[in-house]
Every structure is written in structure tokens, then in C-alpha cells.
Design a protein that fits this description.
Oligomer: heterodimer
Largest sheet of chain A: 7 strands, mixed
Number of helices of chain A: 0
Shape of chain B: globular
Radius of gyration of chain A: 13 Å
Helix content of chain A: under 10%
Number of strands of chain A: 11
Strand content of chain A: over 45%
């Protein structure tokens, strides 16, 4: 299985801040990476697919980069609704695997 | 608007079989562009992909289930289901069904999620 490791596991930031979450794959997954946001009590929501493509309706404050084994999710100008848990997910190989999540809290 | 709704018992006894159904509205599970997956999340923990099915009936599973899981589809009802045998407390989680867009060789992502159904394994 491909292991996905996110860092940090938790992060505190303020409204208006810029934050970056990283995701590292245990082997080369090319560009086959997605990012999801999960608010408490809700199902995850797709944010970014194929490393850097923004899902329809998702704010342009979210962006993704990377290739191979190292990927990043950046959120600019944090808004109150952005405080949630974020997961990366690889689809290069089955089983599909997720990172352990990064919890973003309000400072 | 595509919607997925999970249903099934909220409580299952250890060693018994868990059965969940996902009812799809606004799309057909026969669509060639999609897979249909089950994902679970224990309380306070991360997401675990269980497995998926596509229109052809082809399935893939997470080896972590140790062959306890089966995913099937009922096209007449536009539903797909998960059966998990010999459950233990470790199977306690919120179970989600998802629609997975698949471009054939480039994109693959879970674009529609059900709200999730909590399952507790306990005697």
C-alpha cells in the first residue's frame, strides 16, 4: 500500500493568515493526488483533484502543487469556514489511501 | 443534483454481518464515468477506503479487510451495498458511500459523498 503522510497533524492560525499543508507519498504517485476538506459532523468535500485542479465552486484561495512524492495544499487569506480537517488522497494504486489528516484550528 | 444516502442498522453484534445500502438519486450507477465506493471513519480518526464497484460489476477491495467485505450493486433500484462479515469493535465507524469520477486514465476523485451512517459493533 502507498502510505500518505501529512504534516503538520494540527495547525493553529488566524483569520487572514496563509497556511500550507504538506503531504508525502511513500512512493512516486506522479500527479495522482486529491485534497478534501472535512468540517466537524460533515462528510468530506472535494477541494482539489489531480494535484492542482480546483473543484467547481471551491474558493480560489485554495491551491495545490507538487508531483512525485511531495505535495502541498495552500490556503490564503483564511476565512472562518476554512477551519476544518484536510486530507490528501492518492489514486495511483489500489488500495486508495488517505493521509491521516491535518486539523486546522483558529488561534 | 446527485445525492447519495446510506442506510442500515446502527448497531451490530460482534461476529455478525454488517449490511449497508447506498441509494443513489440524480444519476445512474450504470454510468461508465463513475466508480461507487465505500469509505469509513472511526470516531476522531481518519478516512479508510473500503472498496468500490463500477457499472461492469468489477470490484476492488482494501486488503486490510482480509476478504470480509463484498460490494454489490442493484441497478434496478439504483443502489449499491456493502456487506462486512465477522465484525469486531474495530469496525465501529461512520460509513460513507461516494461517487467517484474516473476519466479513464487521468482523473479519479470522490466528488459526491453521502452524509454517512454511524455503525457501532457491540454486544
Amino acid at each position: 500500500d502507498i502510505q500518505m503522510t501529512q504534516s503538520p497533524s494540527s495547525l493553529s492560525a488566524s483569520v487572514g493568515d496563509r497556511v500550507t499543508i504538506t503531504c508525502q507519498a511513500s512512493q512516486d504517485i506522479s500527479h495522482y493526488l486529491n485534497w478534501y476538506q472535512q468540517r466537524p459532523g460533515e462528510a468530506p468535500k472535494l477541494l482539489i483533484y489531480d494535484t492542482s485542479s480546483l473543484e467547481a465552486g471551491v474558493s480560489s484561495r485554495f491551491s495545490g502543487t507538487g508531483s512525485g512524492t511531495d505535495f502541498t495544499l495552500t490556503i490564503t487569506s483564511l476565512q472562518p469556514e476554512d477551519f476544518a480537517t484536510y486530507y490528501c488522497q492518492q489514486y495511483d494504486n489500489v488500495p486508495i489511501t488517505f493521509g491521516q489528516g491535518t486539523r486546522l484550528d483558529i488561534k | 443534483q446527485v445525492q447519495l444516502q446510506e442506510s442500515g442498522p446502527g448497531l451490530v453484534k460482534p461476529s455478525q454481518t454488517l449490511s449497508l445500502t447506498c441509494t443513489v438519486s440524480g444519476d445512474s450507477i450504470n454510468s461508465r464515468s463513475y466508480y461507487w465506493s465505500w469509505i469509513r471513519q472511526p470516531a476522531g480518526k481518519g478516512l479508510e477506503w473500503i472498496g468500490r464497484i463500477r457499472a461492469s460489476g468489477a470490484t476492488n477491495y482494501n486488503p486490510s479487510l482480509k476478504s470480509r467485505g463484498t460490494i454489490s450493486a442493484d441497478t434496478s433500484k439504483n443502489q449499491f451495498s456493502l456487506t462486512l462479515t465477522s465484525v469486531t469493535a474495530a469496525d465501529t465507524a461512520v460509513y460513507y458511500c461516494t461517487r467517484d469520477f474516473w476519466s479513464g486514465n487521468y482523473y479519479y476523485y470522490m466528488d459526491v459523498w453521502g452524509k454517512g451512517t454511524p455503525v457501532t459493533v457491540s454486544s
